[in-house]
Amino acid sequence: MSRVLIVEDEAHLAQGLRFNLQAEGHAVEVAADGETALERLVEKKEPFDVVVLDVMLPGQSGFDVAALLREKKNYVPILMLTARGRPEDVLQGFASGADDYLPKPFELAILMARLESLLRRSMWMKDARMKDAGSASSGTTGTVRVGGQESGGDSFSFCGKSIDFAELELRTLGNTIHLTVMEAEFLRYLVRSEGRVVSRKAILEDVWGLREDTDTRAIDNFVVRLRRYIEEDPSQPKHLQTVRGVGYRFVAEPE
Length: 255
Hints:
Blueprint: E1 3-7, H1 11-23, E2 27-31, H2 34-43, E3 50-54, H3 62-71, E4 78-82, H4 87-96, E5 100-103, H5 108-138, E6 144-146, E7 149-152, E8 155-158, E9 161-164, E10 169-172, E11 175-178, H6 181-192, E12 197-199, H7 200-208, H8 217-230, E13 240-243, E14 247-250
Parallel strand pairs: 1-2, 1-3, 3-4, 4-5
Antiparallel strand pairs: 6-7, 7-8, 8-9, 9-10, 10-11, 12-14, 13-14
């Protein structure tokens, strides 16, 4: 049985979600504001499998709650609910640490499908950890070396750095950065396009599923954060390069 925390200040909506999720066999708790959610998730460290998080909350917003959870190294999957339909708000949600989003009003069947997807993803991550532990004990590995980099279905290594897509981790010398799902998916997209220029339009549509007329400053800000993770000098990027007027290019082994 999965444990779900609903963070929603509209009582009728929260109780309706609780009723329907319980009918599907989930154990459901409700928090009416961000402070209560953080108390349960961070201070009391209550274990939940997924959080349904509204953006417009009294006090701390859903963006604030998601960002604080990630800052405290709590990586519970987050489905963000927002009445704001602007793509920039969607990207802000992903930037704050949300794993998926759903604009209000929504159909219950869609919400259930999104939740089940996040729960499956959580289970896949747990299974990956178990497999990795088994591989380590047997001396095997899930990566292969290709053109100077190690590449496998769930990992990619370059210039002393390693991205583990299953664990959502970026490992550098002496440091491990836990990635959000969207950060990992963006990096995976760049790795698959290694050496080629990818347009902002393609990134918005293929990674985030957003319209091409979205303000591209939102994705530019996202790139700035990724550069802090992978570049020795983010102000002079060598791996995640800007192609002026077009988009970006990922280079694993810059000259």
